[in-house]
């Protein structure tokens, strides 16, 4: 009568567990190397995924196919004036870009600086921007309370503003800010809306610590009537593929308007998304490198499993010989030792996953990131640990199954 396959499998697993428990310390130390390897792989994948997700969020919050034209620097008598060092970028340049560059979908002139805002008994120094309503779409800003100012407000230089979450908290505390007035110098401005939270920029700046005014309002009431130049022109291209061609066309247009040659640019055109994309790619490359290092530690653990199984085969040669002598098949002997290797590797892998969960929580708390362990990382690590057990356990198992019982018994 042939034994049922599931009964044979149960016997193999039961015997493997008993064999490993007979050498508890050695089994635990061998499994530990697999534990560390699996934990490292899962940690690296989790942290890499969290970092990439954070960079993706920054990329999304950066803008809609952003083309950022910044007042640049000029080489004057061998001295460069630095960013925003020129006053040649004007509202007329902004209108020319909007009207003459078909690859530009939206455009907003911008001036910016730092102001001391006062509301009631509170005051707060914050960044301000003078923009048009299109700026909100270009930079993907939302309105949490109230409403945005309008093109009509820009045309009439209306004394209104939008306020960021941090500035709102510092100036108005728990009170409703919409409809309230704030003062800058001697000028009063009505808060018509509160911006949605945006968080930190890629450079670490708090984007919510800001106040937006209509561009003309900021130009006349804050900067002063005699100051007509712009700090930046924010544009969005019609598609991601149009960003670079649009930037090239803008460069050509501004050189023509400013009567300068290439190499004498008094403006800069920035592509911040390229920097963030490079950061994402670097993070992925670095994560792949660390995963490779973690995989090497798994291979080292696999070598430890092979050494342990070879020692186990040598120590249990009499047991193997007796089993083969009384009718055990070579497949059964090979299966038993292979199951022991896989069980040892799998136990180390499961413990490694548990360690990685705890470690990822601690790392996430330390980094201030939401570090979630991807399910595919766990499955990959466990699958790899089982594969290591099979690969490195096969040779000792094969060696045990090919023993000659007569030689073994005569020797012992």
Label this structure with key terms.
412 residues, alpha+beta, 2 domains, 10-stranded mixed sheet, two-stranded antiparallel ribbon, 17% strand, elongated
3D architecture notes:
The chain is α+β, with helices and mostly antiparallel strands and 412 residues long. 57% of the residues lie in helices and 17% in strands. The protein has two domains: 5-58 and 277-411, no CATH class; 87-265, no CATH class. A hairpin with a 2-residue loop joins strand 8 and strand 9 (187-195). Helix 2 packs across helix 11, helix 9 (272-315) packs antiparallel against helix 11 (330-367) and helix 9 (272-315) packs parallel to helix 12. The radius of gyration is 34 Å and the shape is elongated. The two termini are 33 Å apart. Residues 75-81 have low confidence and may be disordered.
How is this fold's topology laid out?
Elements: H1 5-22, H2 24-62, E1 66-71, E2 75-76, E3 79-80, H3 91-100, E4 104-119, E5 122-131, H4 134-138, E6 143-146, H5 151-156, E7 160-163, H6 165-172, E8 181-184, E9 187-195, E10 210-214, H7 215-223, E11 232-237, H8 243-258, E12 267-270, H9 272-315, H10 317-325, H11 330-367, H12 375-401, H13 405-411
Parallel strand pairs: 5-10, 7-9
Antiparallel strand pairs: 1-11, 1-12, 2-3, 4-5, 4-11, 6-9, 7-10, 8-9
Helix pairs in contact: 1-11, 2-9, 2-11, 2-12, 3-8, 9-11, 9-12, 10-13, 11-12
Low-confidence parts: 75-81
Taking Cα atoms only, what radius of gyration do you get, to the nearest Å?
34 Å
Oligomer: single chain
Largest sheet: 10 strands, mixed
Portion in helices: 55-70%
């Amino acid at each position: 009568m042939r034994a049922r396959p599931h009964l044979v499998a149960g016997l193999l697993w039961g015997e493997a567990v008993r064999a490993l428990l007979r050498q508890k310390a050695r089994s635990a130390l061998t499994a530990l190397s697999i534990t560390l390897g699996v934990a490292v792989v899962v940690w690296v994948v989790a942290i890499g995924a969290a970092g990439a997700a954070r960079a993706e969020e920054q990329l999304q919050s950066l803008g809609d196919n952003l083309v950022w034209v910044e007042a640049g620097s000029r080489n004057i008598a061998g001295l460069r004036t630095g960013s925003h060092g020129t006053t040649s970028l004007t509202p007329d340049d902004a209108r020319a870009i909007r009207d003459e560059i078909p690859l530009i979908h939206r455009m907003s002139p911008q001036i910016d600086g730092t102001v001391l805002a006062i509301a009631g008994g509170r005051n707060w120094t914050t960044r301000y921007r003078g923009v048009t309503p299109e700026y909100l779409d270009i930079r993907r800003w939302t309105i949490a309370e109230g409403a945005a100012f309008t093109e009509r407000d820009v045309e009439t230089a209306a004394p209104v503003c939008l306020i960021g979450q941090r500035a709102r908290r510092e100036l108005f505390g728990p009170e409703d800010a919409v409809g309230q007035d704030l003062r800058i110098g001697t000028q009063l401005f009505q808060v018509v809306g509160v911006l949605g939270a945006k968080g930190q920029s890629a450079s670490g700046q708090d984007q919510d610590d800001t106040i937006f005014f209509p561009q003309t309002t900021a130009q006349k009431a804050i900067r002063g009537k005699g100051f007509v130049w712009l700090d930046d022109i924010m544009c969005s291209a019609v598609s991601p593929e149009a960003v670079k061609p649009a930037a090239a066309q803008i460069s050509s247009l501004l050189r023509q308007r400013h009567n300068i040659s290439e190499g004498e640019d008094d403006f800069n055109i920035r592509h911040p998304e390229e920097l963030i994309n490079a950061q994402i790619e670097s993070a992925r490359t670095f994560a792949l490198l660390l995963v490779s290092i973690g995989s090497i530690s798994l291979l080292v653990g696999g070598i430890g499993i092979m050494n342990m199984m070879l020692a186990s085969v040598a120590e249990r040669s009499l047991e193997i010989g007796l089993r083969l002598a009384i009718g055990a098949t070579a497949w059964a002997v090979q299966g038993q030792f292979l199951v022991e290797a896989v069980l040892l590797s799998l136990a180390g892998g499961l413990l490694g996953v548990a360690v990685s969960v705890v470690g990822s929580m601690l790392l996430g708390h330390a980094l201030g990131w939401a570090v979630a362990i991807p399910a595919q990382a766990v499955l990959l690590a466990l699958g790899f640990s089982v594969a290591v057990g099979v690969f490195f356990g096969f040779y000792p198992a094969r060696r045990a199954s090919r023993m000659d019982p007569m030689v073994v018994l005569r020797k012992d």
